[in-house]
Amino acid sequence: MAAYRKRRGRTSRGPAILTGIAIGLVLLALGGGALWLFAPRARNAGLASARAPEGQVKGYAVQLGAGPYTRDSLSQWAADTADEAAALGMNALFFSIDGPGGVVFETKHAKRGTALSDGDTFFHKLDALHTLCEAAAQKGLAVYAVAQQANAENATYRDTVLADIRQRYATAGIAVPMAANGAQGPFSIYSTPQGTLAAVTPESVAQAGEFFLLTTSADFGGAVFTQAAVSAAPGDAAVLLSAMDGRTPPTLLGYTPPASLGVTYPNDGASIDTKTCFVMGTSDPAQPLTLNGEEVPRYGTKGLFGVLVTLDEGENELVFANGAASLTWHITGPAPKTGQGGGTRGGKPPHDSTASVPEGTFVQTTGLITSLLYDPSGDGNISETARRGAIAQVAACAETVRNGKTTWAYQLTSGDWVLAYNVQEVEGGTASFTGAQAVCSGRDELLQFSGSGTPLAYTNQIENTLSLRFYGAEFAADFSVSGSSLVRRCEVKPFEGGTELVLHFDAPLWGHVISYEGNTVQVVLKAAPTRSTEPNKPLAGVKVLLDAGHGDTDTGAMGAGGQNAPLEKDANLAVAKAAQYRLEQLGATVEMIRTDDTFLSLEQRNAKITELRPDFFIAVHHNSVLLNNDANQSSGTECYYFYDSGKALAETLVAQVTAATRRPSRGAMWGYYYVTRNTLCPAVLLETGFMPNPAEFETVTDETSMWAAGDAIARSVLACVT
Length: 722
Fold this sequence. Notes:
722 residues; Immunoglobulin-like; 40 strands
């Protein structure tokens, strides 16, 4: 029995042991599971959220709402946040992990916020940082943990909690606000190569030009946009974001005046035929400058100077002193006028090869754009322009003087005058047209007239109509335009000596131009450009033609730095390149009349307008003054237009460039410059500043100022596109 009981006892304990083992295993399993539940979950460091963006950081600053959150609502918030950032064109999320409500991630070193802790369960701890990393990774977005409390006064938090985040979460880095007094950004990024990033707040959105200038800096690493900034002005924020395209900005000029005493104008020993001369030069800005013992005011900061000198007859000695340096210069003043000689015998300059013609003679314009004058006495009397090939009849002839020679001018039956050397005699007759066919090309339409003749035509855009007044032309009473998506109806209105054709549209026409091809009339109609629906490329589909004035031997104005410093042609090209860069960032297609130091005639430049059919034409220039005046008194920005279609663009350019460069506004004005006499699109000539003004020359040749002007040109175009 004992043995049996022993065996029985052994037998009874066996199952118990096995049961105990089984229970132990279960408990161990349960214990392990419990430990797993409460232990930090594994974070996938390979997620896209842990990879820093390539190139410039386009960050979107976000924070968790008040909650409370559930597992599902937290996941939805993260997914929506990532979707929104990706749609805006961002490449990184900057997530505030420790706001006033507490932290939003798992930690034993800081108190969790109520937005999450109220949603915790025994088996699942809510973790906003991890959830956002997973959602961001799906969109290819990096995640930076923004630690508001990581300051010098909170060293324990900074060293322990942030180290824990680096180890446990799939973040690309940690960021802390750098601005004083707790204000937003800029942000300094840890563990990324981008360096300091600019913070974009609702207030900074309004400083579009300032932000663009930041992006042209070599050490610009990117920016972080707050949700408030984007929500307050989404379109403006998108424009700012467009400046961050990762391209390396071109070098514009890179000129620094020498800080040594020198005279740049006039040459030593020069003879001047005016009683006054504006003497320009360089000097050490840290030392006083005198001329013949009197102080010379300097209005800039880099030592350039200019002083108006009254010259005596014969040799004038100018002694400059600049600290320890001195310089003696000689200028020969003008001899007194005797009142004898001068002029030509008979009181009239010699005649050129032109001649008078009988009344009724037909003449045809030969220049691409020919000036038609109110009277023949001067070019400032321009009334209209005529395209090459236009035929008109002569009503009268008169002599006038041009370029030191006597020439003939012809009055046409339209009432205006044309210089004889701008036309040729031809066989003429009455033009006749029966209708027109429209050929579409994007937003443009080409109206091809059926019939024959190339009659002189005056055009006028008023609201939703275009009037074409043809001289010496007949139109069929039932004249119509077929195949057009722009022309809604047309009217034929005969007048004595010709016919007026009035085209009606649903909306104002953007531009037009008449040309004569194949012994008939063609009219290009341009519809207004519109903003693109692509937020960061609002000018997509808009074509801009930039004309950097002068080039090669046509140097334009000399600046205060003299011939060895940038000349007007150089400054023009630099600003045009800056404008091109910014316009392309905004999505515009940009053509340049010249991209290097090349000469093009005025006719070649205007031919480009006709060929390329841009939506905007902007000629970039810098101003000058006669150097017998005090150039210190001439400064600022002005812009010229010929047709009313260019007035709004001219006004906008003056306002924007003035604000960006901090130069005075000289206003938008009518002017008869050749390149502005084109009806195809708004065409203007911009004078951004004065070259001979020493202080202004310092700024117009400064890289920052040129970038500011280029950005202002781009924003002016944007403002004119609705």
